[in-house]
Design goal:
Layout (H helix, E strand, L loop, with lengths): L1 H19 L3 H5 L10 H14 L4 E8 L5 E7 L2 H5 L1 H9 L11 E7 L7 H14 L9 E6 L4 H14 L39 H13 L3 E8 L5 E2 L4 E4 L5 H21 L3 E2 L5 E2 L7 H4 L4 E8 L1 H4 L2 E3 L5 E3 H20 L2 H11 L9 E5 L2 H13 L5 E3 L2 E7 L4 E7 L4 E4 L5 H8 L18 H4 L3 E5 L5 E2 L16 E4 L4 H12 L5 E3 L3 E3 L2 E3 L4 E4 L6 H13 L5 E4 L15 E3 L5 E5 L5 H15 L4 E4 L13 E4 L10 H12 L3 E5 L34 H6 L6 E7 L12 E6 L12 E5 L12 H6 L3 E9 L2 E6 L13 H9 L3
Parallel strand pairs: 3-4, 3-5, 5-10, 6-8, 7-9, 27-28, 27-29, 29-30, 30-35
Antiparallel strand pairs: 1-2, 2-4, 11-12, 13-17, 13-18, 14-17, 14-19, 15-16, 15-18, 20-24, 20-25, 21-24, 21-26, 22-23, 31-32, 31-33, 33-34, 34-35
Helix pairs in contact: 3-6, 6-12, 9-12
């Protein structure tokens, strides 16, 4: 009797506690869906829940954004589960080793990775409140992890903009200002990166901090909440083809299970939805695919709305879509997801354990050779993903050779990197390293090639046998550099070298580079090698600064020499050994540039190269004195209306007088041969006589024939050209479209020859015909200045590591 009474009192206390919790509307002081909540208000609500129900809610701040906003994870579960949270996590992770007795479902809900897809965060507050009150029974055997806002900087950018420009209370007319964001929308993060395409590459601080926590849990289910166009109904799983071949039958089937449960609720409410369209499971850096390749049921949910919708908008069919509607839909699928997980706990745990069993992949090991800095850069990425790697033993390895795309062999040494699929993250290793991912359907949502050996510019062999590896690199002792040497010489092969140069230039150290190979004291140095002479830097303080910088880069190979008289090549006083200019660089922003393309450049300078950059907005470009700048970068975008005759004339004059113009992707079209400079767009001739009408249902398939959806091509390199210093004779370029330009008369630093079949990824048959014998990167001398053309984007999403030196060369070597 006493036991029964105690239990009754305990349950009553829980019920009272649930009733006492304030709903989001009660806490915020306005009805949820009638205002957009700012990030600090959202943080306050989740903090309130953690303080009011500490037995069922645990809040962790896992990082901060570039603009210093907090990143949160909120764990919600039953009292017993929260008190045993660490034990539950450890038991779950044992499943990756095959010896777990886990009995809980782990569900991770990620909201607002795109800042102006702003309903997500509002829905997260309603969802956790319902889980703590009316749906608390879901939490008995489940731990729900909620990230209420993956992208706080972008979301606050949108919310603050909307609150500034909306009518009162709001205007549903789509023509009203509140439905038209400016150039810098809230979609991206501070550096204008799309965080939903950064899960694998981890270029952004939000991704880097989040992945640490994600790898601590590896949930059974991960949902990424999004919004799409205003007129689109709701989208949920199952996903569209192509599915990557590593995705298991269970992962496919469980998507259907969840989708059918969602449909039950949507049908009951008369809400429209669609499945199996548009959003595929292939590109590995999404919030659905990356979790899937780590054993989760990874899914994208898409609500109609986005930055256009505001608090309410008239849709194309005359209906009114409100923020309240959007919240209801995301709230419903969120709870439905948790419900399905709790009803399938045994199956989820069994299949998760099965996912991590040893798999018989064709390639067992990937062996990589190359520049140490590039190897180290790849190792850093692998470590962030908890991917195990090691160093090879000396010997010959045989298998698929990436450079030649056929069977071959390569000499391995103690410096060779070995990554095996026989490890916990073996599936992810296959996806990231495989030479050419199998594509079941050419109609994809994103790029179709990303293989890391190509992206990092490393020679690689994929072997069908396991290659032994040592866990640590053997480091040789670095010789002590004399402070009275005639000069100090460094190689030029990588972004690490570019960062080193940028750091020295900022400290006003004078540096030369050789435009001709030379040898000295039995060592050979290639074009682009950096030379710092004592004669150029006679000041003792500069020498002290130089050595302080040397000490900060212990892995940097520096050779001291006592003479400028070389054994072969050009002496240090030759005209082939030129001073590197400490250039003042500007980049155009605003319309007409692409926010993503601008953001890649901005991030490159500030977070990768660490070199100052002036941002000039298009709105006042005409008032800027370009003579104050040595370099002007035009990011990709649509410049048709921006580059008028007056501006083109001003640019030509500035280049003629010594300026350096770097035109990237779409910017090239505005200055091609018909408009001012010598580069010419390749135009494919059409044989209209053989054209046949195409069936309407095949239009999309016909269009894809003329497209290149992110494929890798093998380009030839003229590494005697300054734009290509530090490269081999081949470069694997990531091509993102079919725009093509003819060879320049001179200055073709990287180009495609007749071979136009992609090394990896999809390229339409008609597009391939168009890109033969076309430019990739080149330089046109124009008066005293230069125009650098970058047809392909070497900075794409910040992950194509091997392209970045081309951009550094454009800044420092082309002169």
């Amino acid at each position: 009797m006493i036991r029964f009474l105690s239990l009754t009192i305990f349950l009553c206390c829980i019920a009272l506690s649930a009733q006492d919790l304030k709903s989001p509307s009660e806490f915020l002081g306005y009805e949820l869906g009638t205002q957009f909540s700012r990030h600090h208000e959202v943080v306050d609500y989740f903090n309130y829940l953690a303080e009011s129900a500490p037995d069922r809610v645990k809040l962790v701040e896992y990082g901060t954004t570039n603009e210093r906003r907090p990143l949160l994870l909120v764990y919600v579960s039953s009292t017993q589960n929260i008190s045993n949270l660490e034990q539950i996590k450890q038991e779950h992770l044992k499943s990756t080793e095959g010896n777990s007795n886990a009995e809980k479902a782990i569900v991770w809900l990620s909201y607002n990775v795109h800042g102006n897809e702003s309903v997500s965060t509002e829905a997260s507050m309603k969802t956790i409140y319902e889980l703590l009150t009316s749906k608390s029974d879901y939490l008995k055997n489940a731990v729900v992890i909620i990230d209420p806002c993956v992208n706080p900087d972008g979301r606050d950018r949108y919310v603050n903009w909307y609150n500034q420009f909306k009518n009162t209370p709001y205007q549903v007319d789509p023509n009203s200002k509140e439905h038209h964001e400016g150039w810098w929308t809230g979609r991206s993060n501070h550096y204008m990166f799309d965080l939903n395409r950064d899960w694998a590459w981890l270029t952004q601080v939000e991704s880097q901090q989040r992945i640490k926590k994600y790898n601590e849990w590896l949930p059974h289910v991960h949902v990424d909440f999004h919004e799409q166009g205003v007129d689109n109904p709701y989208y949920f799983a199952p996903a569209a083809e192509p599915y990557h071949e590593v995705i298991t039958d269970f992962q496919r089937d469980f998507q259907k299970t969840i989708g059918k449960n969602h449909a039950k609720y949507f049908d009951a409410n008369g809400w429209f939805y669609f499945t199996k369209e548009i959003f595929d499971l292939f590109y590995p850096s999404y919030g659905d695919t990356y979790p899937t390749y780590n054993g989760s049921i990874g899914m994208t949910y898409e609500q109609g709305g986005s930055g256009r919708a505001g608090l309410g908008i008239i849709t194309g069919i005359g209906d009114t879509l409100t923020l309240k509607d959007r919240i209801a839909h995301h709230h419903t699928t969120g709870l439905s997801t948790v419900e399905v997980a709790t009803n399938n706990i045994e199956k989820l745990n069994a299949e998760f354990k099965k996912f991590y069993q040893k798999k018989d992949f064709k390639y067992k090991s990937y062996v990589l050779n190359g520049d140490k800095d590039k190897i180290n850069a790849l190792e850093k990425l692998l470590s962030k993903h908890d991917i195990v790697y090691g160093r090879a033993n000396k010997g010959t390895v045989k298998g698929y050779q990436y450079t030649n795309r056929k069977s071959g062999s390569m000499q391995a040494s103690e410096n060779s990197l070995v990554v095996s699929t026989d490890q916990t993250k073996g599936t992810l290793v296959k996806v990231l390293f495989e030479p050419n991912a199998k594509l079941s359907d050419s109609l994809t949502y994103d790029i179709t090639a990303w293989s890391l050996p190509y992206a990092y510019g490393l020679d690689a062999i994929a072997t069908t046998t396991q290659i032994g590896a040592n866990r640590s690199e053997k480091l040789s002792e670095k010789p002590v550099l004399p402070k009275d040497a005639y000069a100090y010489v460094m190689d030029w092969n990588s972004m690490e070298d570019a960062r080193f140069l940028a750091e020295l230039l900022k400290k006003d150290i004078k540096i030369r580079t050789t435009h001709h190979p030379f040898s000295l004291d039995g060592k050979s140095f290639e074009r682009g090698s950096l030379i710092i002479t004592k004669a150029d830097n006679p000041d003792k303080e500069k020498i002290a600064t130089l050595f302080e910088t040397f000490e900060k880069h212990p892995h940097k190979e520096i050779t001291s020499v006592n003479t400028g008289f070389v054994d072969s090549g050009k002496d240090f006083g030759s005209g082939y050994v030129k001073m590197i200019k400490k250039s003042k660089v500007a980049v155009l922003s605003g319309d007409p540039t692409s926010t993503l393309r601008f953001g890649e450049i901005w991030h490159f300078f500030e977070q990768q190269l660490h070199y100052p950059l002036t941002v000039i907005d298009a709105s006042y470009f005409d008032n800027v004195d370009l003579d104050k700048y040595d370099v002007l970068v035009l990011p990709g975008g649509g410049y048709a209306d921006f580059i008028n005759d007056k501006r083109l004339k001003a640019l030509k004059k500035w280049v003629n007088e010594g300026g350096k113009l770097i035109a990237m992707n779409g910017a090239i079209k505005s200055i091609d041969g018909e408009k001012g400079f010598d580069i010419k767009l390749r135009k494919k001739e059409k044989d209209s006589l053989n054209e046949k009408p195409k069936p309407h249902e095949n239009i999309q398939r016909e269009r894809i024939k003329n497209a290149i959806t992110g494929a890798i091509f093998k380009a030839k390199v003229d590494n005697t050209h300054p734009l290509a210093y530090g490269y081999d004779e081949d470069y694997f370029t990531l091509k993102l479209g079919s725009d093509s330009y003819e060879y320049l008369k001179n200055g073709n630093a990287a180009y495609l020859e007749n071979e136009t079949e992609p090394v990896a990824g999809f390229a339409g048959s008609e597009a391939q015909k168009k890109i033969g014998k076309t430019l990739v990167f080149g330089v046109e001398n124009h008066g005293k200045g230069h125009v650098v053309y970058m047809v392909d984007n070497p900075l794409f999403r910040g992950f194509w590591e091997n392209g970045k030196l081309f951009f550094a060369n454009a800044l420092f070597m082309v002169d």
